[in-house]
Design goal:
Oligomer: single chain
Strand order of the largest sheet: 11-12-13-14-15-16-17-18
Distance between the termini: 91 Å
Radius of gyration: 33 Å
CATH class of the domain at 117-330: Mainly Alpha
Low-confidence stretches: 1-24, 202-216
Mean pLDDT: 84
Helix content: 40-55%
CATH superfamily of the domain at 117-330: Transferase(Phosphotransferase) domain 1
Largest sheet: 8 strands, mixed
CATH topology of the domain at 117-330: Transferase(Phosphotransferase), domain 1
Strand content: 5-15%
Length: 687
């Protein structure tokens, strides 16, 4: 027998011994019923219960154990066990699973899966404080919301209402799991619940202390529905969870609670009246479509809310897929009101005409006093009103076109496309709206979509953009995929000779804000710089990115003036000194903490976009003041060899520790006004 076979036989014997059931204690460990749980560690507590982390010896896993803080009250014991058994009956990936329920010396407990990670409340607090995390993007936060909706939709399908949906009760694991916790306030709809849940339909004789508020109000201030306050007499039900989902969406959009106040009574009063600031008043960047969804879910009257969770999810998914949610259509009256305010002369004339028409019809009806003629006149009036309403729909198209153009100008291409679609749907003859729509499709690499509308946008089949769309639609036949970087640079090379800078730079902007890996991003930047400045200059290009430190060095390129391709580059620090750049727009969306813009052609700081920069070098520039950046957390500032001679703005930099000046830059009086805690470094004045 070969040595290899001997080795294999020996290895097999080892495994046989390792897994010999007669030698293991696994079966014995299951027979031992004492001390199943050990290594208890306090985790958190609420109004009724305490949560500890512990180790289950039988299953060899860490679990969370909930125990009742006060086991002397039979009604509290009943509520505690009701929550445990109700939660255990709910089996869904987005609902925390209950493992076991028991009594320890008449004190009830239950164990559940421990979700390592954060609560959604902690995630929102981080984003509100300016800290970036994986949920900084709106789409990622919408993913969380949709998973919570899945959990509530399932619960409703078996007749369970949660009644306490809020960020504190939503856990997000380190691996992306989202679970809804704390079913202590949950109720069961007897008329439609699962048969196994009927035993939980009983209601206690009177309210007891709950997790959130002492007294008769059950829910969480800031997130509860109007009918959960003691100020309204409305039945709670599935519609209550719909409202709370709306408040959750509100928090994910604005990072704020919808209902705030100096006291519980003030918060409850605002909740009962559904009085809260609309999301866009807190953040103008919130999409109007999502605001409409949020406002519909948070309607005061239950019948005005979504009929079920699935309809709410449908509107969120419609937005995600580029369509208009039903809720946004329902709020068109508001857009129409704005239209009337913008066109007062037309509105006044139309209303005045209708008043004259109504008066004439009424007078004619009274004079003729004939039923037949009355009927004719009423039909005529109805026809005119319908024509008026139709005309108003057509006249709304310019409003959407204006919004589409505004969004296009600031490079919000998704939003611009939605507004352009609204405009052409209301007035298919609005050629300018078709042009905006076509341009958006081209920039978004949707060449098939461009070719479908190019004629309506007055782009002929021989137009250069039409030819390019045809060429690249054959390279990339599916509009849902993207060109690779080499293909994209070829597109820019083909487009640049068209001398259409309005579109050219937006094509660059669009790709800069796509999710590119660092190697593709570097290749993209170098390619655009070569295209904009020519291969001879680009051959001498200094462009180096240190992936470990996050430092980008583009210094000493004396000819470099166009740097928009650098936007959204993941650099923590950048050196653009000794270049020909004349503004700092190319630094947009960079997570910069340090920037060197020395010896450039920058003459203003209004466009400086980096709000977290701590070290800023501006020496050698024609700058007269630094007021536009005095709200930044700058700790070290270089302004030597500039025209800045006023020290008053220096005192506005509350974080400043080091200031670099040149000899004689500030007078003695100005120097005396600089706060004493700032270290001043003097550089020699150039000869």
């Amino acid at each position: 027998m070969s040595p290899e076979n001997n080795f294999a036989d020996g290895l097999g014997d080892i495994f046989d011994e390792a897994f010999d059931s007669s030698e293991t204690n696994l079966s014995e460990s299951l027979k031992n019923t004492e001390d199943v749980y050990s290594d208890f560690k306090f985790y958190s507590e609420g109004g009724l219960k305490r949560i500890d982390l512990c180790y289950n010896r039988k299953t060899n896993r860490r679990v969370a154990m909930a125990t009742l803080k006060d086991g002397s009250d039979p009604q509290k014991v009943e509520v505690f066990l009701r929550e445990a058994k109700l939660n255990a009956a709910l089996q869904h990936p987005n609902i925390v699973p209950v493992y076991n329920i028991g009594l320890d010396q008449d004190k009830p407990w239950f164990t559940m899966k421990f979700i390592a990670g954060q609560s959604l409340s902690e995630v929102i607090d981080e984003l509100k404080s300016g800290k970036q995390n994986e949920f900084s993007g709106l789409n990622n936060r919408l993913d969380i919301f949709l998973k919570v909706c899945d959990a509530i939709a399932y619960a409703h399908s078996v007749g369970v209402v949660h009644l306490d949906i809020k960020p504190d009760n939503i856990r997000i694991s380190s691996y992306g799991d989202v679970v809804l916790c704390d079913w202590g306030l949950a109720d069961v709809e007897a008329s439609c619940c699962d048969e196994l849940l009927l035993e939980y339909c009983s209601v206690l004789d009177h309210d007891i202390e709950n997790h959130t508020i002492h007294g008769t109000v059950k829910g969480s201030p800031g997130y509860m529905a109007p009918e959960q306050t003691s100020k309204l007499k409305m039945r709670k039900g599935f519609h209550t969870d719909i409202f709370s989902l709306g408040t959750l969406l509100y928090a994910l959009l604005s990072l704020e609670k919808p209902f705030k106040g100096k006291s519980i009574d003030e918060i409850l009063d605002k909740t009962a009246r559904c009085q809260f600031p609309i999301p866009t008043s807190l953040n103008s960047q919130i999409p109007i479509s999502l605001e409409a969804v949020c406002l519909k879910a948070m309607a005061l009257q239950p019948e005005d809310r979504y009929a079920n969770v699935q309809d709410l999810q449908k509107d969120i998914l419609a937005y995600r897929n580029g369509f208009m949610p039903d809720a946004e259509e329902a709020s068109f009256a508001k857009a129409l009101k704005l239209l009337l305010l913008r066109h007062k002369a037309f509105s006044t004339l139309a209303i005045f005409t209708l008043l004259i028409l109504a008066t004439a019809l009424l007078a004619l009806s009274n004079n003729l006093k004939l039923a037949k003629e009355n009927e004719v006149q009423l039909k005529e009036k109805l026809k005119l009103e319908q024509e008026f309403n139709k005309q108003m729909g057509v006249d709304a198209a310019p409003l959407f076109l204006e919004r589409a153009i505004d969004a296009f100008d600031i490079c919000k291409f998704d939003e611009s496309l939605r507004f352009a679609d609204n405009a052409v749907n209301r007035n298919p003859n609005l050629q300018k709206a078709w042009r905006v729509k076509a341009n958006n499709h081209f920039i978004r690499e949707e060449y098939q979509a461009f070719l479908k509308v190019h004629e309506k946008a007055a782009y002929s089949s021989t137009h250069p953009m039409t030819k390019l769309a045809l060429k690249y639609s054959q390279i990339k036949a599916d509009d849902s995929t993207a060109l690779n970087i080499s293909q994209y640079l070829n597109l820019l090379t083909d487009f640049k000779p068209l001398n259409n800078g309005h579109i050219y730079f937006k094509i660059i902007h669009y790709k800069a804000f796509q999710n590119l890996d660092i190697d593709d991003r570097i290749k993209f930047c170098k390619g655009v710089i070569t295209l904009n400045h020519g291969p001879k200059k680009a051959a001498l290009l200094n462009f180096y990115f240190n992936k470990s430190t996050g430092h980008l060095d583009v210094s000493n390129n004396l000819w470099l003036s166009s740097h928009l391709c650098l936007m959204n580059f993941p650099a923590k620090s950048i050196d653009l000194s000794n270049t020909a750049i004349y503004n700092s727009i190319g630094l947009r969306a960079m997570p910069l903490e340090a920037a060197d813009l020395s010896n450039t052609k920058i003459i203003e700081l209004q466009t400086f976009p980096s709000k977290k920069v701590k070290v800023l070098k501006l020496s050698g520039n024609t700058l007269f003041h630094i007021k536009p950046i005095t709200d930044l957390p700058i700790e070290e500032l270089h302004i030597q060899h500039t025209l800045i001679v006023n020290s008053q703005e220096i005192a506005l930099l509350t974080k400043l520790k080091k200031l670099h000046l040149h000899e004689g830059q500030f007078s003695k009086r100005e120097m005396a006004q600089i706060p004493s805690n700032i270290e001043i470094i003097i550089h020699k004045k150039p000869q």
